[in-house]
Amino acid sequence: MMPQEKSQDERRSRTRFPIHRELRYKLLENETVVESGLGETIDMASGGMAFQIEHPLKVGAFIELAISWPVLLDDCCAMRLIVSGRVVRSWGKRSACRVDKYEFRTRSRVVPVATVRKEGNVQRFPVPRKESLKAAGF
Fold it and tell me: Which residues contact 99 (CB under 8 A, 6 or more apart)?
């Protein structure tokens, strides 16, 4: 992934990387969620990011973004990047926010439900083997 070239009238001091990932957003007022929804990132830098949602946002609004991360932790665990900041620009469906705080979190795992065998009036659940427990992270 190559960083975007800076034009002569570019105001940003940090290099932005074009990366398109699914995101979930929450607009917060006094630590209360007032709006939430889905969108997609446009580009990212260490100091800010641009993204697209269904409508314009109010400049100055506090926003939290949860972005699906393209790399697995230890080649098996999905990650997401959580970004908090203020909306600094909004034009049409596109907005940009300043990155005040960020952290990586693991995404919840989906554990397959065990199939149940029924023999007469007795239900039998499969007994997990040690190898399958270890593969599931237990």
Answer: 45, 46, 47, 48, 49, 83, 84, 85
Distance CA 100, CA 86 (A): 8
pLDDT tens-digit map of 44-70: 998 999 999 999 999 999 999 999 998
* Separate counts of helices (H) and strands (E) for the chain: 1, 10
- pLDDT tens, 71-94? 888 888 899 999 999 999 999 999
Cα–Cα distance for residue pair 58/34, rounded to 1 Å: 12
pTM (two decimals): 0.68
Answer left, alpha or beta for residue 29, where phi above 0 means left and psi between -120 and 50 means alpha. Answer: beta
CA distance 32 to 29: 5
What fold, for 17-106?
A: Thrombin, subunit H (2.40.10)
For 82, counting Cβ atoms within 10 Å of its Cβ (0-12 exposed, 13-18 middle, 19+ buried), the class is middle
